[in-house]
């Protein structure tokens, strides 16, 4: 017998422990090399552990246990590598479900998240081209396939999907008793950290929010006119975020006080433009950073945002993806938010909140006209930024969006 230890891998100098949230396989299963074994949640990131060798796995740690970096959580008997692997999603409820389409070898190794999203969106994983390691289909691949599928089928599949067949038996699911009205589940490490940081930001900063509104007509006309050519040349769509990112960079140059942060009784002035982008995931809101936005063109910004958003959805973000941001943009408008007061992403000094675009009557040249309008919200640390600077910054963004030529001329 040749036993190989499965250890918690190092994730960064600042991470010493985490919670083994769930196993992707069952105790006693025969696993393949590089097959995902478990999901580890830390206070900063969520990562997967994979098998270093094929063989029969024996658990040393149960789901929900806090583990330290380097701790042995299982062993793999490599002498049993020739045995028939157990199905990755062998759930008792599967016997009652309708026969599933034949799966490829790659599709049987998918994580529970992939299988759950596939069940909810009625996507056949075997027909999705995987972009993960060894061609493995990721959750982002399934979401992308779902977006390109007809909306009606996605909605009907989500309503019809049964939760009991969407997850494997090995994944712990906390639900309320049939006769109960409440259930209780422990907060994830990531959610605990999000909660602490938000409360800390409110307690430590003199936070204030100023508002403005912007007419989106010019940007919408530009997108409509050049969208097809933009996609043909760059392979990505021209979205609103690239316009706002460019506008933010220009405004940061014009109002440098926003591109600074406090460190005790010292002011640190940033001379670079790494912008944090708020991304909503199943586990909570994360803010990965897009580097050197002042050096990227519109296509480069759209591609960079798409990459960090995909990594966030797939749980592939690492510590470097969060470090060094100067300013944050958050877009609640994609969920229909009309107005909000975003909380500063410490130690940054300000955050821009974007909102839904709605047709509203506005006065223009003495006449009432209908325009696609968006409310903008800038929350800032009043200890460092004065009201004049905050309002000027927001007006600069408004001017750039309403007259995108300013972005070309940097005025």
UniProtKB/TrEMBL annotation:
Cofactor stoichiometry and binding remark: Binds 1 lipoyl cofactor covalently.
Name one process (GO BP) from the record.
L-lysine catabolic process to acetyl-CoA via saccharopine
Entry function: E2 component of the 2-oxoglutarate dehydrogenase (OGDH) complex which catalyzes the second step in the conversion of 2-oxoglutarate to succinyl-CoA and CO(2).
Q: What is the similarity comment for this entry?
A: Belongs to the 2-oxoacid dehydrogenase family.
Pathway-wise, it operates in: Amino-acid degradation; L-lysine degradation via saccharopine pathway; glutaryl-CoA from L-lysine: step 6/6
Ranges for domain Peripheral subunit-binding (PSBD) come to 109-146
Q: Which keywords appear in this protein's UniProt record, sorted alphabetically?
A: Acyltransferase, Lipoyl, Transferase, Tricarboxylic acid cycle
Name the InterPro entries on file. 2-oxoacid_dehydrogenase, 2-oxoacid_DH_actylTfrase, Biotin_lipoyl, CAT-like_dom_sf, E3-bd_dom_sf, PSBD, Single_hybrid_motif, SucB
Cofactor(s) needed: (R)-lipoate
Q: Which Pfam families match?
A: 2-oxoacid_dh, Biotin_lipoyl, E3_binding
Q: Which SUPFAM superfamilies match?
A: CoA-dependent acyltransferases, Peripheral subunit-binding domain of 2-oxo acid dehydrogenase complex, Single hybrid motif
Q: Which part of the chain is the Lipoyl-binding domain? A: 3-77
**Start-end of Low complexity biased regions:** 92-106
So what EC number does this one have? 2.3.1.61
Name of the protein in question: Dihydrolipoyllysine-residue succinyltransferase component of 2-oxoglutarate dehydrogenase complex
* Designated gene of the protein: odhB
Q: For the region Disordered, what residue ranges are annotated?
A: 92-115
Which GO molecular function annotations are given, in alphabetical order?
dihydrolipoyllysine-residue succinyltransferase activity
Record's GO cellular component terms: cytosol; oxoglutarate dehydrogenase complex
The protein's annotated catalytic reaction(s) are:
N(6)-[(R)-dihydrolipoyl]-L-lysyl-[protein] + succinyl-CoA = N(6)-[(R)-S(8)-succinyldihydrolipoyl]-L-lysyl-[protein] + CoA
């Amino acid at each position: 017998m040749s036993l190989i230890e499965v250890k918690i891998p190092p994730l960064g100098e600042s991470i010493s422990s985490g919670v083994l949230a769930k196993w992707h396989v069952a105790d006693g299963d025969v696993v393949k090399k590089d097959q995902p074994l478990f999901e580890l949640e830390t206070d900063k990131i969520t990562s997967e552990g994979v098998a270093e060798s094929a063989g029969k796995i024996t658990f040393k740690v149960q789901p929900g246990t806090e583990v330290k970096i380097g701790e042995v959580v299982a062993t793999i008997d490599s002498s049993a590598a020739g045995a028939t692997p157990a199905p990755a999603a062998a759930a008792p409820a599967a016997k009652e479900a309708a026969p599933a389409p034949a799966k490829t070898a790659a599709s049987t190794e998918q994580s529970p998240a992939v299988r759950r999203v596939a069940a909810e969106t009625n996507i056949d994983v075997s027909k999705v081209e995987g972009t993960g390691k060894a061609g493995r289909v990721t959750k982002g691949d399934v979401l992308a396939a779902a977006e390109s599928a007809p909306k009606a089928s996605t909605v009907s599949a989500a309503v019809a999907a049964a939760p009991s067949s969407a997850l494997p038996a090995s994944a712990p699911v906390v639900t309320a008793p049939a006769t109960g009205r409440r259930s209780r589940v422990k907060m994830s490490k990531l959610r605990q950290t999000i909660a602490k940081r938000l409360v800390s930001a409110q307690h430590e900063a003199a936070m204030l929010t100023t508002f403005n509104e912007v007419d989106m007509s010019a940007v919408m006309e530009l997108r409509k006119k050049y969208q097809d050519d933009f996609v043909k040349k760059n392979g990505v769509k021209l979205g609103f975020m690239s316009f706002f990112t460019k506008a933010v960079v220009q405004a940061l140059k014009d109002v440098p006080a926003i591109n600074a942060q406090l460190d005790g009784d010292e002011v640190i002035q940033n001379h670079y433009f790494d912008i944090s982008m708020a991304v909503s995931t199943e586990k909570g809101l994360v803010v990965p950073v897009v580097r050197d936005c002042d050096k990227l063109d519109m296509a480069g910004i759209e591609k960079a945002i798409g990459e960090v958003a995909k990594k966030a959805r797939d749980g592939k973000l690492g510590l470097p993806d969060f470090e060094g941001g100067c300013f944050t943009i958050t877009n609640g408008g994609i969920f229909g938010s009309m107005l909000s007061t975003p909380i500063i992403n410490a130690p940054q000094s300000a955050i821009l909140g974007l909102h839904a675009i709605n047709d509203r009557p506005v006065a223009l040249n003495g006449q009432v006209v209908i325009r696609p309008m968006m409310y903008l919200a800038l929350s800032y640390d009043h200890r460092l930024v004065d009201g004049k600077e905050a309002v000027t910054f927001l007006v600069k963004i408004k001017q750039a969006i309403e007259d995108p030529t300013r972005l070309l001329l940097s005025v």
